[in-house]
Amino acid sequence: MDKRPPTTMSAEIKPNEMKLVDDTFNPIGPVPTGPGEVIDADEKRVVHDSVFGDITEDGPNYRNVGWVRSVALMMKTQIGLGVLSMPAVLDTLGIVPGVILICVIGGITTWSDYMVGVFKLRHPAVYGVDDVGQLIFGRTGREMMSVAFCLFFTFVAGSAMLSVSIALNAVSMHATCSAAFVAIAAIVGFAFASIQTLGKIGWIAWVGVSSIIIAVFTVTIAVGLQDRPAAAPQAGPWQSDYKLFGKPSFTQAISACSSIIFSYAGTPAFFNIAAEMRNPRQYTRGLIICQSVISVTYIVVGVVVYYYCGSYVASPAPGSAGPLLKKVAYGIGLPGLLVSTLLSIHLPSKFIFVRMLRGSRHLTANTATHWISWIASTAGVTLVAYVIASGIPVFGSLVSLIGALLGTLLCFQPMGCMWLYDNWKTEKRTVGWSLMVTWSAFVIVSGTFLMVAGTYGSIKGIMASSSSGAWSCADNSGSA
Length: 480
Description:
Blueprint (H helix, E strand, L loop, with lengths): L46 E3 L3 E3 L11 H10 L9 H8 L1 H28 L6 H9 L1 H34 L5 H16 L4 H28 L24 H14 L3 H9 L7 H27 L13 H35 L10 H24 L3 H17 L1 H11 L7 H34 L16
Antiparallel strand pairs: 1-2
């Protein structure tokens, strides 16, 4: 039995507490070496984790995510029916520049994601992006990153609730008020988001990822087989008006870039996923699979749908395949949208929960304080996300603004700073070191430019947009 006292780490992470430790431990007993292996109950013990403190079988096991489930969690933080916004991106930029930009942004964010795993191994006490802000920029950096993370994922949760309402409207042919469907999404999301650990949510994430991928490829195949998209003129000859090279204005181009960045914006959640992995050294394996699958999906779906539909991609995009296939696609994708809702509620809730109870035995023990804090966190995030989604008429435009402002901030600049923080003072200043300094600086500068420009484009979009009323009952699934 490990007789070390419970962690006394305060909410403030200090650099001298960041010591490299054995990353391969299993919180309750040894790590299974293969699927289905059973660990003898007699081998279970108390294990001390740099983030969660003492983990025992008397409380939730916060270090029980295997690399296979980490793939599902990583993919689900990024991929949703929003992948069907890629044809619109290509319509703005053209197929060739659009595909190149998807690859470039995908490459940069993959490096950012990789740095999350490297930084976690070097600094085991890091739980979230706020701890990175604390290490590099002190208290100000911590608070700024905390607000950015919680605000970003709360808006994502609201967006997911609206997506569920769109799917329910499409499948049911607007059987009831849209505001009621948003409330249903919030209630279901809260119920499943209250599952305490990502290890237990992992299998649900696989269901969500599978349903989304099947749904988007159903739409993709359908638009390739039909005579013309549902939104195109139905009389007379028709030919797709796809463009290899577009001629967008600056605002249009930046908005398209922001859409791609938002599609890869799961990066800040990867800290939390790595923190709950049984073996963080397997993080990179899961990351490579995740980024490869979603990048191929984005390119294939974007190119194929845009090639066959041209500028007549319906909004929402599943309508491009016609009314029947739209219902089918939303029906198949509904579980994935619900998983997006629960996961985007769970992540900021867990973030708040850990920050409140870190350093206390209540973090990993089934005490009244533990449960009251946890349920209060999930209920609070759910309520705020629901009110924002239903009560703000310009919600869609605000999501674009939050994505451009905070999504870029959380995916680019911190990771460049992380590499410099760990490597700037090295005595071996080789050519490779110089190249990495240049690369890290490029990521910081390009991220800052895209953040400012994307925010400008989003504000312009808000000024030009029209909106429906708060708590609207109107059908939001489109008429196609």
